[in-house]
């Protein structure tokens, strides 16, 4: 942790509102504030897990190097998440191609999603193609179950991970 | 030993010998001696020596006060003890005398007696056995007004000679400090006359004191000596007995009986530190040392002390240590530990600069202004930091410069000019393009500090005059304003600098008269191009653009009216877009929301209202009705109508939002009331015509009626009583008398049927318009004139109207609003109505088991809202009506649960009975209510019978507790806990939500009573897990509440208690992560994360 890989990263503003659009904005409703009295026990109205929801889970994870969230550094974005049938692919962009923290960032995304998504999903985590010099190695490491499990056995690593995840889910 | 005896006798003989020339009082006491039996006195003394009972002392004091005996008698009676060879007897003897003095009214002691006693006590100071009681006696004796100046030096020198503080316990030392404190108050001149003897003596006495109780007094004494006495020869001594305590790190012990906090000590020490300039050369190095080495708390204490001391120590000291002070403060500000320390450092720096600038030394004659050299160094350092705008230090540097603006004219004009120049230069440097956002942000900080802190200036409140500094501040910018304005406009062009520039412009226009009207027009022109932009291109700027423009709207509405508003109005189509034209709908809504935000200014709002009502008129009928093409005979069905209704709804919503902003201000806009005569009749006409039309109309849609109702509420709320009187008389004759034109401004097209919404047979559409009627009544003023005699009849009719079979829930809600508002505001006018409720309505409807349960449920709801209207004003009938609800619960009635929920509703805040709506609200009504009902509910709920009645009481308990502040029942939680857990097993989602909310609210407050929570923790975990599964609990509100509660437990329960459940909780919550509802999943994620982190 002595070496700072990117000492002066660009910090982007977080999107202020929640990304979720109202039924009016998505064109589902004609009415600007369509707050119908909901039937709380209505089982038919299923809201499937989508891009935005997965992004909400990981956007506020802290960067291991900086006091900023992954969203502020544009390491993750909603567009880089793909949801198929029980398969989620998350792509992330390291801030610099030689970033040695990439595996740690990937690992923190993996642990967060392991804890927050239903077990039926298989999660693939990759760095954005061309954004990292050892792309293949990182991808391989992140999607190898054994190696992830082994990493989580390491108390020092786990502590660093928990530090990154401490801010996850917080909405400032 | 030998010495004492003759001295003591001498004292007695002196007092006797002095009798002749002391005066009548002493004489009369002497007379009394002969007549008073000494036996009684001696008995009391003997008895006190044996028992030490305070009562004996009181007897003696009262005898003394009433004149039955004299001090001399007491001394005589004590004689043998005072001179006893036995240590304990001697101690007690003096102690007795001191206690008597303590209790005896001080003003009754005469000069002679005080002198004798003082001399006596001074001799007793030499004796280690009697020093404590003697000091005690002295500390009270010196409070006597009769203490002679001549006694003071002797007394003090005796003290300085014989009192060895280190050998005495705290209470005794406390007497010493108290004695000196009293003397300082009453004999300050005598002490001054003692000169060095006193000053040095006290310093020796106070040195080494450690007890906080004594120190509080000691600090007060030191402060007086330092400010009023000549301490020039003893500066170091006094420095030692004050600065050695700084910074105060004292922490009171737990359950501290004396209640002295560190803050008390700090606030009494600080005045000592800043008492004299003489401390300057000694104090500042100490401060600097503490500042560099200390913890954040110490740093803040030091900074606070420096802020106080520097002005006292003066410019020469500040200058002597200037460079060191600046570098220490610079470190604190440029690399702040925490915001509070940062703020404190800034304050101190400001004081420091103020001190220097009060007596500036200027070496360089070439400078045009007289800025102190050191201050100039500070400014140059800050400007240097600003030279690298992307670094955090630049922000700190700017903060420092901004804090200087109020100090001195020369300084602030230098700072502003230099900083602005520097930033403008960097901005235009092609090498620094990437730093432009930071440059603009820094500039914005500067502009913000130039703007007055309060709300943006309004035209009716001119910009100047407020304080002397305001006109000065705005002039500061004058030389660089053009460059700054140009820079900000350039900044608008690039996406990265757009938002900062908008903020900068917003700050610039807040500076009074900094920009001319023409320049405002220029700003509007440049900014307006972002108003109508697609959100994809300029997503983040819309809100900033709008807030900038709406602040310009206050200063110069004409620029908006001519440049910004026309395109927005043009974006509103005359006809509603078709159902599938989603993008057009988004477009009109964007235009409407922008307009809604921009048009709050009275002038603009008027245009806004006119333009929007014109659009509404066009939407009245769904199809284009040109004379050439009459509408087809078959009326368009409701589906075709929906887009038009949605468009009208959007327009009305925009209108309502603006009105709400105007009315909710702390000083509501004055133009709103006039719309009671224009806008409201217009809207009534649109809605009421639609209600009586024989075809489907846009304005018959209940969603539109709801927004119109909101507008009516807002306008009535803002209107004065006179116009309300007129309005309500029109409203009543329209709704109750069929004179519909009296509320529609005289115009009304009768399309098919009469307007009779209150009739039993009225159509649903007509009945729906009661929503508008109700909306007007909710904010009605109390003194609006209504026909009091017929009021009871009207209310009863309204109840009958509600019990009609075709009454919809919204209509019933509207009616209950009218009932609640009128009953609350006119309870004294309607005794007949209350009688009707309790007799007729109660027995025929509410308590009549022959009518349907559904109708009775509705009746209970109405009953509850009327009861609440009475309850909040503490009307005597409220409890009578409440009792009836208990009857329903007690009977195990079909509507028992509704009645139970109603008990909770009675204490729940609502939107109708509020201060804003002029309802009569008595304070503490909720507490009184709770005191009345909670014992009844508790008693009934505790009887475990499994009956319907008991369950209903659990419902009542949960809903009442959920409605009142937790402080009211927190103490009873151990008793309530089993009941609440039992309630969680009942099949009523609303009940479960209530209970989980109660548990959630009390979970953190239970810290003292964790035991009660700990006992049930494991049961709670299991029951909450069950309630969070979609398979077990279909109601998502319960699932959310249960998950929230689960997330709280790790924070309040010791890990070892819940350790056995961790694996199960994580496993079960894993399933909940797949809940069909997004809101539930979110809570599950939160709870699961908390449980992952929950470790021992």
Keyword list:
heterodimer, A: 172 residues, alpha+beta, GMP Synthetase, Chain A, domain 3, three-stranded mixed sheet, 5 helices, 3 strands, globular, B: 1096 residues, mainly alpha, 68% helix, 0% strand, disordered N terminus
Walk me through this protein's architecture.
Chain A: This is MIP18 family-like domain-containing protein. Chain A: Keywords: Chromosome partition. The complex is a heterodimer of chains A (172) and B (1096). Chain A has a 3-stranded mixed β-sheet with strand order 1-2-3. In chain A, strand 1 (81-83) and strand 2 (87-92) form a beta hairpin. Chain A is α+β, with helices and mostly antiparallel strands and 172 residues long. Chain A has a domain at 51-165: Fe-S cluster assembly (FSCA) (GMP Synthetase, Chain A, domain 3, 2-Layer Sandwich). The two termini of chain A are 27 Å apart. Chain A has helices at 51-58, 102-116, 135-142, 145-153, 155-165, and strands at 81-83, 87-92, 122-127. Chain A contains 5 helices and 3 strands; from the N terminus they run H-E-E-H-E-H-H-H. Helix content of chain A is 30%, strand content 9%. The model of chain A has no long low-confidence stretch (mean pLDDT 81). Chain B is mainly alpha-helical. Among the domains of chain B are: 1-148, no CATH class; 167-252 and 260-275; 277-359; 384-388 and 397-515, no CATH class; 601-625 and 637-785, no CATH class; 1004-1096, no CATH class. The longest helix of chain B is centred in the middle third of the chain and has 27 residues, at 638-664. Chain B is built from 54 helices and no strands. The model of chain B is unreliable at 1-35, 456-471 and 624-636 (pLDDT under 50). Chain B is globular and about 115 Å long. In chain B, 68% of the residues lie in helices and 0% in strands.
Brief synopsis:
The complex is a heterodimer of chains A (172) and B (1096). Chain A is α+β, with helices and mostly antiparallel strands.
């Amino acid at each position: 942790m002595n070496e700072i890989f990117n000492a002066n990263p660009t910090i982007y503003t977080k999107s202020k509102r929640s990304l979720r659009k109202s039924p009016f904005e998505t064109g589902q409703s004609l009415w600007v504030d369509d707050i119908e009295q909901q039937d709380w026990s209505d089982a038919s109205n299923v809201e499937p897990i989508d891009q935005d929801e997965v992004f909400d889970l990981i956007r506020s994870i802290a960067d291991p190097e900086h006091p900023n969230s992954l969203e502020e550094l544009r390491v993750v974005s909603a567009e880089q998440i793909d949801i198929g049938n029980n398969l989620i692919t998350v792509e992330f962009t390291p801030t610099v191609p030689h970033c040695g923290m990439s595996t740690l960032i990937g690992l923190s995304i993996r642990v967060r999603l392991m804890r927050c998504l239903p077990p039926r999903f298989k999660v693939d985590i990759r760095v954005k193609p061309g954004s990292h010099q050892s792309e293949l190695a990182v991808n391989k490491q992140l999607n190898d179950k054994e190696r992830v499990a082994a990493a989580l056995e390491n108390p020092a690593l786990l502590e660093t991970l928990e530090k990154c995840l401490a801010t996850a889910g917080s909405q400032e | 030993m030998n010495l004492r005896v003759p001295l003591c006798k001498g004292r007695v003989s002196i007092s006797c010998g002095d009798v002749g020339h002391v005066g009548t009082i002493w004489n009369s006491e002497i007379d009394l001696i002969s007549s008073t039996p000494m036996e009684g006195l001696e008995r009391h003394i003997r008895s006190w020596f044996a028992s030490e009972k305070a009562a004996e002392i009181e007897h003696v004091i009262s005898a003394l006060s009433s004149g039955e005996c004299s001090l001399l008698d007491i001394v005589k009676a004590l004689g043998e003890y005072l001179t006893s060879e036995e240590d304990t007897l001697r101690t007690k003897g003096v102690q007795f005398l001191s206690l008597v003095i303590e209790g005896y009214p001080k003003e009754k002691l005469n000069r002679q007696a005080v002198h004798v006693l003082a001399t006596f006590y001074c001799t007793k100071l030499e004796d280690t056995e009697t020093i404590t009681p003697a000091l005690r006696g002295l500390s009270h004796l010196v409070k006597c007004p009769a203490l002679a100046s001549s006694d003071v030096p002797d007394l003090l020198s005796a003290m300085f000679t014989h009192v060895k503080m280190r050998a005495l316990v705290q209470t005794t030392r406390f007497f010493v400090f108290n004695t000196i404190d009293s003397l300082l108050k009453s004999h300050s001149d005598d002490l001054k006359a003692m000169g060095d003897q006193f000053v040095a003596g006290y310093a020796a006495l106070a040195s080494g004191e450690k007890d906080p109780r004594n120190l509080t007094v000691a600090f007060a004494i030191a402060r007086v000596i330092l400010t009023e006495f000549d301490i020039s020869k003893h500066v170091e001594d006094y420095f030692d007995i004050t600065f050695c305590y700084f910074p105060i790190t004292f922490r009171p012990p737990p359950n501290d009986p004396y209640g002295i906090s560190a803050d008390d000590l700090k606030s009494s020490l600080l005045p000592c530190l800043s008492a004299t300039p003489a401390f300057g050369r000694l104090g500042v190095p100490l401060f600097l040392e503490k500042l560099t080495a200390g913890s954040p708390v110490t740093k803040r204490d030091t900074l606070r002390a420096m802020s106080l001391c520097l002005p006292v120590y003066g410019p020469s000291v500040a200058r002597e240590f200037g460079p060191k002070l600046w570098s220490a403060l610079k470190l604190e500000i440029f690399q702040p530990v925490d915001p509070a320390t940062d703020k404190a450092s800034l304050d101190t720096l400001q004081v420091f600069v103020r001190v220097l600038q009060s007596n500036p030394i200027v070496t360089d004659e070439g400078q045009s202004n007289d800025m102190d050299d050191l201050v100039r160094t500070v400014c140059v350092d800050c400007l240097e930091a600003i030279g690298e705008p992307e670094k955090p230090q630049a922000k700190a540097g700017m903060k420092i410069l901004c804090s200087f603006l109020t100090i001195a004219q020369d300084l602030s004009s230098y700072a502003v000019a230099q900083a602005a120049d520097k930033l403008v230069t960097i901005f235009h440097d092609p090498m620094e393009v990437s730093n432009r956002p930071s440059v603009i942000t820094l500039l914005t900080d500067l502009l913000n500090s130039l703007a007055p802190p309060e709300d943006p200036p309004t035209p009716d409140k001119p910009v100047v005059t407020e304080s002397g500094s305001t006109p000065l501040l705005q002039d500061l910018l004058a030389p660089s304003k053009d460059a700054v304005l140009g820079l900000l406009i350039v900044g608008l062009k690039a996406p990265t600098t757009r938002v900062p520039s908008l903020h900068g412009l917003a700050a610039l226009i807040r500076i009074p008269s900094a920009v001319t009207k023409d320049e405002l027009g220029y700003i509007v022109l440049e900014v307006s191009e972002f108003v109508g932009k697609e959100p994809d291109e300029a997503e983040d700027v819309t809100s900033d653009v709008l807030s900038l423009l709406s602040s310009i709207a206050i200063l110069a509405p004409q620029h908006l009216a001519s440049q910004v508003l026309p395109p927005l109005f043009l974006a509103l189509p005359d006809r509603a877009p078709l159902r599938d034209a989603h993008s057009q709908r988004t477009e009109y809504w964007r235009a409407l929301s922008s307009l809604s935000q921009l048009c709050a200014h009275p002038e603009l709002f008027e245009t806004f209202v006119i333009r929007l009502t014109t659009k509404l008129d066009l939407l009245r009928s769904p199809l284009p009705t040109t004379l050439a093409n009459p509408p087809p005979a078959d009326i368009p069905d409701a589906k075709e109508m929906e887009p038009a209704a949605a468009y009208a709804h959007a327009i009305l919503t925009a209108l309502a939002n603006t009105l709400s902003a105007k009315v909710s201000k702390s000083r509501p806009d004055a133009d709103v009331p006039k719309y009671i005569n224009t806008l409201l009749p217009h809207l009534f006409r649109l809605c009421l015509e639609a209600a009586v039309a024989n075809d489907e109309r846009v304005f018959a849609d209940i969603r539109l009626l709801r927004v119109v109702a909101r507008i009516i509420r807002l306008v009535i709320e803002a209107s004065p009583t006179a116009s309300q009187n007129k309005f309500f008389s029109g409203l009543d004759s329209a709704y109750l008398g069929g004179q519909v034109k009296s509320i529609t401004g005289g115009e009304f097209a009768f399309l098919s049927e009469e307007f009779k919404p209150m009739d039993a047979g009225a159509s649903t559409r007509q009945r729906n318009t009661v929503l508008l009627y109700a909306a007007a009544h909710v904010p009605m003023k109390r003194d609006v004139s209504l026909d009091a005699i017929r009021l009871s009849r009207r209310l009863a009719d309204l109840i009958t109207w509600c019990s009609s079979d075709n009454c919809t829930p919204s209509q019933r809600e509207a009616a209950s609003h009218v009932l609640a508002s009128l009953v609350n505001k006119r309870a004294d006018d309607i005794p007949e109505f209350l009688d009707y409720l309790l007799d007729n309505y109660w027995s025929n409807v509410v308590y009549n088991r022959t009518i349907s349960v559904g109708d009775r449920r509705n009746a209970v709801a109405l009953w509850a809202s009327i009861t609440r209207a009475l309850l909040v004003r503490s009307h005597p009938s409220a409890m009578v009506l409440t009792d009836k609800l208990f009857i329903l619960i007690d009977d195990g009635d079909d509507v028992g649960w509704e009645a139970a929920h109603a008990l909770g509703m009675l204490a729940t805040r609502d939107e109708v009975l509020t201060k804003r709506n002029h309802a009569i609200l008595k304070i503490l009504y909720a507490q009184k209510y709770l005191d009345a009902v909670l014992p009844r509910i508790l008693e009934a709920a505790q009887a475990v019978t499994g009956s319907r009645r008991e369950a209903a009481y659990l419902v009542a308990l949960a809903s009442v507790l959920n409605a009142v502040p937790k402080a009211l029942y927190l103490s009873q939680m151990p008793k309530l806990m089993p009941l609440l857990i039992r309630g969680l097993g009942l099949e009523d989602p609303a009940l479960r939500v209530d209970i989980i909310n109660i548990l959630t609210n009390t979970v953190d407050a239970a810290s003292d009573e964790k035991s009660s929570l700990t006992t049930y923790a494991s049961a709670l975990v299991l029951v909450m897990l069950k309630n969070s599964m979609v398979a077990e609990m279909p109601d998502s509100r319960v699932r959310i509440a249960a998950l929230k509660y689960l997330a709280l437990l790790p924070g309040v329960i010791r890990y070892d208690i819940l350790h056995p459940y961790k694996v199960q909780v994580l496993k079960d919550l894993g399933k909940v992560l797949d809940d069909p509802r997004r809101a539930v999943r979110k809570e599950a994620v939160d709870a699961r994360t908390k449980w992952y982190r929950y470790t021992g």
